[in-house]
Amino acid sequence: MKRKTGQDRSITQTWRPATKAIRGGTARSEYGETSEALFLTSGYAYDCAGDAAARFAGEQVGMTYSRLQNPTVEMLEERIALLEGAEACRSMATGMAAMTAVLLCQLQTGDHLVGGRAAFGSCRWLTDTLLPRFGIATTVVDARDPQAFLDAVRPETKVFFFETPANPTMDVVDLKAVCDIARERGITTVVDNAFATPALQRPMEFGADVTAYSATKMMDGQGRVLAGAVCGTKDFIDNTLLPFTRNTGPTLSPFNAWVVMKGLETLDLRIRRQSENALKVATFLEGRVPRVLCPFLPSHPQHDLAVAQMDAGGPIFALEVDGGRAQAHALLDALALIDISNNIGDSRSLMTHPASTTHASVAEEKRREMGIGEGMLRLNIGLEDPQDVIDDLDQALAAAGL
Ligand SMILES: *Cc1c(COP(=O)(O)O)cnc(C)c1O
User: Fold this and answer.
1) Hey, which of 91, 263, 315, 372 has its CA 20 to 30 A from 36?
2) Which residue among 264, 295, 314 closes a domain?
3) Are residues 259 and 351 in the same domain?
């Protein structure tokens, strides 16, 4: 593999984001292929037994096994790290594999974590069920209020863990304020940045230590593969995360890594157009439904903060109807173009009822506390002509009595 300019950080990190997204991390084989090669291999052969021994001893550069290293996967990791402005990145099989690894690799019995209350359902399962099972105490707070993090801090607090904007309430967290609180106390801040991606928001610029991703969402962007990633300092990735992941094996498949790498080439284009489309659709809905929760609409209570932290609003927002689950389901059932689907980040417009899908496993009283009512619907606006999406919603709203 020739690394040319693609892997030389002193050059690649000076590139602008669009260039990083296309060329970052590229390493060419002896064939000089322009599109990155897909190395579907689980193992590697050695020229002699001494080479194998030297590689295992860490005395020879090279790969040993695809749970640990793979050329295609490493290209993707370097590309994500560059886009994030992070020293290092490790990809994972799924977003949840990334979230689980990033927490378990650094926490142990007796430690304490403060998490955001509004979060992806499985992330809440980690904070509420998995971590306490191992004697790791957790407190969930209203992450919109930095003071709530400060109030929850204990001497044994090791990690702050939250999403912004959060799934599906679109709560926004003040990154700088919360990261400052953590920094002063030696607490590691882990931000789940799946909704915005590094194309719209780079939490490390505000002081976050670690970002974690479901790359299944906007990074792939076309609803094809599951993937995840964790970005941080080289020290964190090599010495805290890697010992955990090398031995537990939440490794991303080279095929999925290749698909996500191709997705990154168009991430910036897609997310900006989808953000524009989403704002058009949200503006239409604002006159038609009781509440629209969209950080880039001036009506959102955290609009100024969202605009200060994010380059655009992203493709996802939520709305609320007053007729509860029955009316929300009626609206979904009347859709003709938009799919009923709990996925997000796809180039197709998708809509779901969080209380009966993504957050069905969260107890009803916890859902209420998180701000997820029975009348809430979450939308992912795709790359279709936004007027067709608006027309579809217009007729479905009428069919649901709105
Ligand atoms: C989807 C999602 C996850 C989980 O990612 P998977 O790739 O589905 O495992 C975690 N956090 C957020 C905010 C998500 O949207």
Assistant:
1) 315
2) 264
3) no
Evaluate whether residue 2 is within a structural domain.
Answer: no
Cβ–ligand 1 contact at 354 (below 6 Å): no
Select from 103, 195, 216, 259 the residue to mutate for testing ligand 1; criterion: most ligand atoms less than 8 Å from CB. Answer: 216
Segment (H or E) for 330 = helix 324-333
Query: Among residues 205, 229, 264, which one ends one of the domains?
Result: 264
Q: Which two tokens stand for residue 27?
A: 């390493």
Tell me the whole-structure pTM to 2 decimals.
Answer: 0.96
pLDDT at 2 over 80: no
DSSP state of 33: -
Give yes or no for residue 345 CB within 6 A of ligand 1.
no
Tell me, in angstroms, the distance from the centre of ligand 1 to residue 102's CA: 14
- Nearest alpha carbon, ligand 1 atom 6: 95
Q: Is residue 3 part of a domain?
A: no
pLDDT band at 240 (very low <50, low <70, confident <90, very high): very high
Q: What is the CATH number of the domain that holds 90?
A: 3.40.640.10
Ligand 1 pocket residue status of 380, Cβ below 6 Å: no
Task: Let me know: does 254 contact 130? Beta carbons within 8 Å.
Answer: no
